[in-house]
Structures are given as C-alpha cells and as structure tokens.
Amino acid sequence: MIWTIYPNHIADLTIYRSSGITNAEIYSASGHLIKTMKISKGKNETNFSTMSAGMYILKIGSVIFKIIKK
Description:
- This protein is mainly beta.
- 0% of the residues lie in helices and 66% in strands.
C-alpha cells in the first residue's frame, strides 16, 4: 500500500491518503494505545485537537509514522 501523510508537525488535524483499506492505531510516546480506526481508500483525516502536545505513533497496517503534535 502507498501512504501519504501531512503535515507531520500538526496543530489539530492530520490528513493521509491510502491506496487501500486497513486498520490504524494511535499510540502515545510511552506506547499506550489511544485510538483505533478503520482507514478507507482515498483521503482520511484524524483530529488531534483534544490530544496534548507531544509525540505520537501512528501505525497504519504494519507501517509506523511519528507524528508531532504542537
């Protein structure tokens, strides 16, 4: 699958495009699971506005991305 994620340093919203359907998880920097979601083909958005500033791990399928929340 092909992933495009932007922006990396986010304030409230991160946007990603997927070439297929899969599951995703958001983890805190300490490894605690915060949220699970279903990713559909095409454009997807995740709202980080209620989360504290810091680093988060976004795992989409078996691919891991570091996300920095301002």
